Amino acid sequence: MKYFFFSLLLFTAAAQATQALTEFKSPEQRALFKELTHELRCPKCQNQNIADSNAVVAVDMRAKTLELVQQGQNKEQVLDYMKSRYGDFVHYQPPLNKFTLILWLLPALMVCGLVVLLLLRRKADRSVVATDPGDKIQSQPEQQLEQQLDQLIEQYRRKS
Amino acid sequence: MRKLAFFIPFVLFIALSVFLFSGLFSNPMERESSVLDQPLPAFALPDLHQPEKIWTPDSIKGKPLLLNVWGTWCVTCNAELAYLTELREQGVMIVGLYYQQPVDAAFGEVFNLSALQQEVTLKLEQQGNPYQWNILDKDRTLIFDLGVTGAPETFLIDAQGIIRYHHIGDINPQVWQQKLAAAYQSLQE
């Protein structure tokens, strides 16, 4: 039994080894392949990159990416190759065009709107302060009230 | 000013609600194919049943047709075979593009053409045969160039070999009437 489990371990090691056996001419190509498979999106699965997915189309795209990278194509060329077949959807970095413009504009517009709103508020607050009849008039009845209150407290003290 | 301050959040809330609500009914799989209105990509692939015969974009030009990507392993494809056969009987020209799944050499799998031919013949005898002929795309090269993400998918190709319409998913009476029939009829003229 012990040997059985041990041999299982051997098998898993072998399986991992076959998956990792991809040879590159240079470390740059290896890095590019890794970068591309993490940035390219599997068109069949919802929100998985092709490094992460084992859907047939993702497997094919990985193989194609590898082939193109090994041919010495750069990142832009590989991305264009994929986009011409699977559309902009396939890259996690959407391009700037009339359909995606709002993604860039919306945050800026929101900040602008917020600034305008804050400025308007300040102005409104200031105008309230400016048109206020003033502290003196308001404080006078308050003083009177306080005097009355003091008198009342005095009366109650005497009673008790 | 007060009134406006009350209405701005209200309008924003309504806009957001409408946006999210419409999202409930949208299909995330639906997106326009990037090969639309382009000629068929170059290919030279064998016929499934007569491998010595090679199909190219030029050899399938001449009549508008449906190029249907399918495989016997694909359940939805099998479900649409009967309706596609009906369409064939109505005179629609349908060509099959056979989607061969990858063969995993690590598990000792080998591609066996005659077994595949038998399987396809049997399936088409059982479910109906809508295809004028089948193109075998063993390494999914044309399938890749067409941007196919799975099966079934169907392309409407005009007489000049230009891709006019792309549909992901099965073809049923509803889909045919709503999406493909008019486009196919217009190509006939």
Topology:
The complex is a heterodimer of chains A (about 160) and B (about 190).
Chain A: H1 2-20, H2 27-39, H3 56-70, H4 75-86, H5 101-131, H6 135-159
Chain B: H1 2-24, E1 45-46, E2 54-55, E3 65-70, H2 75-89, E4 94-99, H3 113-127, E5 134-137, H4 141-145, E6 153-157, E7 163-168, H5 173-188
Parallel strand pairs in B: 3-4, 4-5
Antiparallel strand pairs in B: 1-2, 3-6, 6-7
In short:
The complex is a heterodimer of chains A (160) and B (189). With 160 residues, chain A is mainly α. Chain A is built from six helices and no strands.
Report on this structure:
The complex is a heterodimer of chains A (160) and B (189). Chain A is mainly α. Chain A has two domains: 2-90, Cytochrome C biogenesis protein (Helicase, Ruva Protein, domain 3, Orthogonal Bundle); 101-159, no CATH class. Chain A is 72% helix and 0% strand. Chain A contains six helices and no strands. Chain A has helices at residues 2-20, 27-39, 56-70, 75-86, 101-131, 135-159. Chain B has 189 residues and is of the alpha/beta class. In chain B, the strands form two sheets. In chain B, strands 5-4-3-6-7 form a five-stranded mixed β-sheet. Chain B is elongated and about 80 Å long. The termini of chain B are far apart. At the A-B interface, helix 3 and helix 4 of A face loops of B.
Tell me the span between the first and last alpha carbons of chain A: 96 Å
The largest contact between protein chains, plus residue counts on each side, is: A-B, 19 and 18 residues
CATH architecture assignment of the largest domain in chain A: Orthogonal Bundle
The backbone outline of chain A, from C-alpha atoms, is: elongated
Taken together, the total number of domains of chain B comes to: 1
Number of strands of chain B: 7
Q: Structural class of the helices, strands and pairings of chain B? A: alpha/beta
Rg of chain A computed from alpha carbons, rounded to a whole number of angstroms:
36 Å
Structural class of chain A: mainly alpha
* Form type of chain B: elongated
CATH topology term of the largest domain in chain A = Helicase, Ruva Protein, domain 3
Number of contiguous helices of chain A: 6
Proportion of helical residues of chain A: over 70%
Q: State the helicity of chain B in percent bands.
A: 25-40%
